């Protein structure tokens, strides 16, 4: 053993007295112990431990992006940490199967003793959402409400403080915006891109128009969708139009950030874009996993309670349904596929630029 | 080797010449091979193989229930087969991660060559939905349309034929309806149940009324929900009311079937109810897994195409969103938790009845 | 809210102050905080929470079997509880992926501060093994040693006390042994079975003998294996032979229990055998999942440390390798496939027996 | 639709007539159809489809490394492809749960008709192993034998041809060996490293020596292990010693490749090492997943057959057990943790070197 290092014991190190001594059944207070209440408690405690770990990673990531310059070595770190978050999220999604080993009837045997506790009171989950960038104005109504009424004053103050700090969304937006690449090059990528996408849109219009399998009504709808897609494209090249659509919440990223992200996605195999591309992909995946979690959670609650009210005194299943539709954060990364061109339609980058996107070592060889 | 058994070889047995010779890239016809098209083809072929297996199990199950008497031994078999379906569905849901290793840009390199192919043309998937019991009138609009326009005449005829046959839903409903238990007993379970649920509903009403964390608007909504739950309860004891709600699609199961299912769920640990309970649970789970599949599929499509149109010439993501909300089949089993009583609120069954629900062996000992 | 029920709050109920306040990094004591130590702690705490839940289910199951009569309704419960254990085990196996997001180098940044803590000191895991039925004499050497030297006196006493109580293995063995079915029937199942298996063994012998793809050495080995299989078969019908093989640890179940289990597996679709069959299957699966856990754990340790010593001051990877091979408990259920006959080779049960294995309800109709 | 693109239909594109028409039950030839034989066929066909996809990725990766220069952009591609392989492998491992829904008895109802077919005859699996780099001399005995006897002449010729071509292992070894970084720098990393590791080894020796929880025998074993670890360390700095150990199969990578890999692992966050690190990690993971697959497969076979012989006329479970221990390919990457130093023990890289490992863009700013 290294000098000066005190011996460390498994149970002490993990503070198992606290961890394993924190399960007190409510049912025991009022009647016979409900066997499944232990599962209910432990499943939720495990979720909270994972939330703590996710916040540990998110906070470190926010600290990194909250600097003037993000070093390349730190970007590696950030990507690994976000991929760890995803691995944990996948596990959390699978964990729903454990909760579902409890039958609705078993749940009923202790439900009444939990009133008015509710998962909406998980401060860590709210911190997670806010840290990622879920703005209060984007929350579904029910969820907004819960901020004010269901929390203690301290908890509310903590969350409101957090809402004022820059979120990961904000910081990534800024970081993307200041990517210098697009502004300094005289190679006019965007001119080329404009032409290529115009062509693609015309093709899509043709495909819809000549699609005989669509009813007249459906065709009309599809053409309307196409029109809206076209407007989004036009906004890419017109700052004012973009800002207008952004106000309508059709975009959330700033104009510069969106263009940077688009360029990165188009040329993701260039060395300098590799980690940024992995970053964007990871944030998209985190959002997707969070959405799947809400959705599966909603199904589980319905299965457990039907249309009965939950312990929080409201039928959570309505809310959960709605939250799965809206509480998305990095929606722009999700929708970015709209604007992508296939490799074959992209211009070959001039050597001067390719060099700039490469490693030092190769540039001098 | 047993006499008269011809030797069997691995590759021949699995017909690997067919299986491994069925991947022809469209991209090769028109330009360079798109590396990821192989993945796209194989992922879909694997899905179709699993669909075939699921249909194999569903059809056998339908055959079993399509008899006048379902033997106890067959019920064991049915439950195992449905649990196998669930195991496959879980795998199919995880398989989406494989498809998501393809980036949107990689997909674009062959998307144009696939027009107008579309997953909506998977006959096996439609057969699966119809066999389970998805009625045309319950399908979301877009999906209804696709029946008429996107299929070949033969395929449409096949599906329309299938729609006329009894589905698993229909057969399970009938099987539940003819369970004799409730009608012959003079022990009045339902009278007791009526009283107990009335109490539970009053408690819930109190919980909502005294919940200070709800806004006035939310409280009004919750009380409205409560009212609707109460009406559903009332309908349990009133055939006419039930039929009225059933016409409004608030129930799909017949009155008798619903009551049988409810009784089974309340006393699932009684030997004779054990397999029926597992059956109901399995059907609920199949529905849930199918819904998760549609939902994850919808997210994947959005990630791959944004708001671009799909190869079928329509922006599938709209449809997929809607289908996740509605194309449920065994919704009543899902909502059944509404009507459940906790064990402690249930009457102890009289010995005469307990005996009837038990094994022969124990009844004589 | 129900009268007399005090309000319950999410964070208090889950004792989140304890749970989320139990992560103290050792690295912070001696140098800079190692970012990944948080993951290391939380991953282990989650495992311990799941162990607590598994023990909760196992202990309840042991209590059930520790009665003179196990009611049918309780058997339902037992099966559900063991299936829950399996669901948790699957999740625990997948959780290894979370630990593997930590690179070996990251682990090294705090490894030295953990000496001599070791996973071998997890009392809950040892309790789990002992409760299932892992006997000290079956433990691999290294593991035996750890009982005496690595634990505190209290912990050792606790485990030694537990070793003296009947394990789940012991109780299930007893419960299987007293199944009355085989002794009272005059239908001679075992006579029939003897003939059928003799035939099957002869066929297998032929298959090996005529297998030209085997080398002489391999054929010799296969025939030796066949011989040993044959001896096991012979022991089924000869109590003395059986006891002899049992002393050599070729069987662990008692003779009666093994025969009961075999009968159950052969006729698992008969109502009265349905739950016993699910019980046997669940115990096999629990053992398999535990073995997979040890194996994946061993791979992870090797990946993290190579051949370096672990924090416990010994190269755990050797031990873990060996433990995956031996620390199995319900090995007999695993090997039982050896003795199974295909359905077609089984005698049709006489109606009198079939009735005995059925429900009361059907027996009178 | 784009001009000149013929319409493409779902079922035709996927060649579903072939895929869904390739399931012919052997049991139907000789007796009644065995319901579970369909599952058995489809599960294996799905595996073969995934093998085809994995080979598609591996072959493309081999082609990339089989060039004189691997471009940075191609390295991105390679890493993505290998990560896709891992995603597929995880799914294949979970797929074992599907096979395990078949009971041993169900399998017996068609086992006899499959003789002498065997999974050992899967040519694609053998191609996969050989392409990765499994040398014949490293195969476990049984597996070696199967090359000669169980295959058709054509298949054997195909595999023997493949064995003569460079495997992914060979090519990655070469690519690592020619990394110029270590040879050109005058900064003496290895001198520093030597000193730091000597210290680490001394510490480990102390930890073992002062470990009172070890028995005398165990301590002796641990010290022997330590000695062998020390010899491996010494070999790192002595080409002759290294080659000697390599001949004893203690190392498989060439000396240069091992040192490169070690350097990459130590400084993985430097931009130029990012993708190489991901490559090494991916290859390690592929090996691990393959090993888990073999292990779980072995357990499944034991559960299905006990000690009975398999359809190939030999008790596969022996073989499978042994193969899980030995058929590893990238074992050096696995064991590399032995040689790693914690970040804190590593020298800060001089700026001149850091620059060389960075992006062009940052080097000029």
From TrEMBL, chains A, B, C, D:
Cofactor binding note: Binds 1 heme group per subunit.
One function term, GO molecular function aspect: heme binding
Pfam family, one: Trp_dioxygenase
Needed cofactors: heme
UniProt entry keywords in alphabetical sequence: Dioxygenase, Heme, Iron, Metal-binding, Oxidoreductase, Tryptophan catabolism
Phylogenetic placement of the source organism: Bacteria, Pseudomonadati, Pseudomonadota, Gammaproteobacteria, Alteromonadales
Subunit composition and interactions: Homotetramer.
InterPro entries recorded: Trp/Indoleamine_2_3_dOase-like (IPR037217), Trp_2_3_dOase (IPR004981)
The family this protein is said to belong to: Belongs to the tryptophan 2,3-dioxygenase family.
E.C. designation(s): 1.13.11.11
Pathway this chain belongs to: Amino-acid degradation; L-tryptophan degradation via kynurenine pathway; L-kynurenine from L-tryptophan: step 1/2
Residues that bind heme: 297
GO annotation terms (biological process): L-tryptophan catabolic process to acetyl-CoA; L-tryptophan catabolic process to kynurenine
Name of this protein: Tryptophan 2,3-dioxygenase
Binding site for substrate: 40-44, 111, 311
HAMAP family xrefs: T23O
Signal peptide boundaries: none
UniProt function note: Heme-dependent dioxygenase that catalyzes the oxidative cleavage of the L-tryptophan (L-Trp) pyrrole ring and converts L-tryptophan to N-formyl-L-kynurenine. Catalyzes the oxidative cleavage of the indole moiety.
Catalysed reactions, semicolon-separated: L-tryptophan + O2 = N-formyl-L-kynurenine
């Amino acid at each position: 053993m290294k000098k000066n290092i005190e011996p460390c014991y498994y149970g002490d190190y993990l503070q198992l007295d606290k961890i394993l001594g924190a399960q007190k059944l409510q049912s025991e207070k009022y009647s016979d112990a409900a066997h499944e209440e232990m599962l209910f408690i432990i499943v939720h405690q495990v979720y909270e431990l994972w939330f703590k770990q996710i916040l540990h990673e998110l906070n470190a990531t926010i600290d990194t992006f909250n600097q003037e310059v993000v070093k390349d070595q730190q970007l590696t770190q950030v990507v690994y940490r976000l991929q760890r978050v995803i691995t944990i999220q996948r596990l959390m999604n699978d964990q729903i199967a454990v909760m579902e080993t409890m039958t609705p009837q078993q749940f009923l045997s202790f439900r009444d003793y939990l009133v008015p506790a509710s998962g909406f009171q998980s401060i860590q989950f709210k911190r997670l959402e806010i840290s990622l960038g879920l703005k209060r104005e984007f929350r579904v109504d029910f969820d907004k409400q819960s901020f004010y009424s269901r929390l203690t004053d301290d908890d509310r103050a903590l969350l409101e403080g957090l809402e004022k700090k820059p979120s990961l969304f904000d910081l990534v937006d800024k970081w993307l915006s200041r990517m210098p690449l697009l502004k300094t090059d005289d190679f006019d990528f965007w001119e080329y891109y404009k032409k290529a996408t115009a062509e693609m849109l015309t093709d899509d219009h043709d495909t819809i128009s000549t699609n005989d399998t669509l009813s007249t009504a459906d065709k009309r709808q599809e053409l309307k969708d196409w029109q809206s897609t076209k407007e989004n494209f036009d906004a890419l090249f017109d700052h004012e139009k973009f800002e207008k659509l952004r106000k309508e919440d059709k975009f959330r990223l700033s104009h510069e950030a969106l263009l940077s992200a688009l360029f990165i996605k188009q040329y993701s195999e260039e060395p300098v874009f590799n980690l940024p591309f992995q970053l964007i992909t990871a944030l998209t995946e985190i959002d997707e996993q969070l959405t799947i979690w809400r959705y599966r959670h909603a199904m589980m609650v319905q299965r457990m309670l039907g249309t009965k009210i939950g312990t929080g005194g409201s039928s959570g299943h309505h809310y959960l349904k709605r939250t799965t539709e809206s509480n998305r954060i990095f929606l722009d990364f999700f929708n970015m596929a709209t604007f992508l061109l296939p490799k074959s339609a992209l211009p070959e980058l001039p050597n001067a630029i390719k060099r700039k996107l490469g490693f030092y070592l190769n540039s001098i060889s």
